[in-house]
Amino acid sequence: MGANLITGLAFFLFAAGVILYAVILYNGLIRLRNENDRAWANIDVLLKQRHDEIPNLVETVKGYMQHEQQTLIAVTQARAASMNAASIGQKALADLKMAGALRGLFAVAENYPELKANENFLKLQSRISELEERIADRREFFNDDVATYNSRIGQIPDVFLASFMSLKPRQMFKVSDEDRKQIEVSFQGQGAAGA
Predict the structure, then answer these.
(1) Cis bond before residue 157 (omega within 30° of 0)
(2) Neighbours of 16 (CB within 10 A)
């Protein structure tokens, strides 16, 4: 009877240990998933703030940049695509297009001294540049969280629990090939070209 009691107690402790370990793994995976969601929400808030500033910027530069309608259209279209994006992947792609369009707009603005001296333009440029820096920082945090999450759901023993929970790897924020290219700026009607 003493041997059966010890065996039963050992089995109970082993089962309790396995259950406790599974709960710890489960809670860790849920925490990582929630951190990914929080990191993306932080980026999304900054993207919304940037979207809110774009119409003000476009209105400010319209009068100065009559020869640069394609640049303004690119910014407006990028903003619309970004606002209509639903998934994280779509928003990430739209964000990259928006960043490229803004870089193009600021590069073109260099050729308009009156615009560069405009107080509203300078404030908006500063505000958007600040938001761009904060978005870049948040992307880094997001990618760190996603890397940790993807590593955990691919490692043993977490992979078994992750499979049971239907957790899938998530995409990181990546720079597109188009975003790596040098921006070429041409000033139509002004005879100047720059990059």
Answers:
(1) yes
(2) 10
CB 28 within 8 A of CB 162: no
Distance CA 31, CA 54 (A): 35
Neighbours of 182 (CB within 10 A): 6
Report the alpha-carbon distance of residue 40 to residue 78 in Å, rounded. Answer: 20
Residue 172's identity, in one-letter code, is: M
Helix (H), strand (E) at residue 186: strand 185-187
Sign (positive or negative) of CA dihedral 32, 34, 39, 43: positive
Give the helix/strand (H/E) hosting 194. Answer: strand 192-194
Which phi and psi angles does 159 have, rounded to 5°?
Answer: -60, -35
| Per-residue pLDDT at 146 | 92
Distance in angstroms (rounded) separating the CA atoms of residues 186 and 189? 9
State pLDDT tens for residues 154-173. Answer: 989 899 989 988 999 988 87
pLDDT band for position 193 (50/70/90)?
A: very low
Nearest of 57, 158, 67 to residue 103 by alpha carbon: 57
